[in-house]
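User: For my dataset I need records formatted as: sequence, then structure tokens, nothing else. Please produce one.
Assistant:
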Amino acid sequence: MATDPHWSLPGGVALVTGAAGGIGAALALNLARRGMALALVDRDAAGLQAVADQAAAVGVAVSRHVIDLAERAQVDGVLPAVLAAHGRLTLLVNNAGVALGGRFEQVDEADFDWLMRINFDAPVRLTRACLPVLARAPAALVVNVSSIFGIVAPPGQTAYCASKFALRGFSESLRHELAMAGSPVRLMLVHPGGVRTGIADNARVAVTATADEVASEQAAWRVLLRLSPEQAAEQIARGIVRRAPRVLVGRDAAQAAWLQRLMPVGYWAVMARDLARRTGRAA
């Protein structure tokens, strides 16, 4: 991909959601070290302050925006606050996400809707609001963080997979629209594999799931979380520098994506056997 002479991180302004911890915090600090001003969004005020302090120590301008992405009115207030603090925007990173454990018949409708508001509706609303502002820049980028579970869909993850597949479809279609329109804004879709964040431990649990079921699922997935948030953030940041259209984060994500292409229907049988081998559970 040819380098766009107008695209540069130093001096730019990045809006990063889910910035109080995990990949979001690590990516925000990575971007700060690359010279970007930051607008940090999260509902965790204390965590957001800690990240903001670290970023400010690098010498970049930082604003904090404590909001709940499940609340549409709060989401709609983000961009005006960011523009009041920074005056412009060149990079939008829709990173925030939540998880919900349990089989579909176990998951409460209200919890399913709550997850979709955060994982899908909020990125769509922020993208809709920010695109006209981003388009004022000579070059800009939207980064939507999906998941490897936006490519493969394991059982017990119906809500999460629904949101991440939806974000993938939205992002791919929007990428094509932006290119057809000759927009200065590009779109990068990110599919992280197993990253050691707190999303699984902090997940909501289906109301009918037992404590043993919850503990067993968390222990199983924890085995697969090999990449640190900092390692994941570096891979994403390198993609941002290139304005790459897609980034698969981690070898496991690349392998799962390859297997899904090879066996679009039967991939889970293979993955389940591998998961059983790693965790000692029955496939």
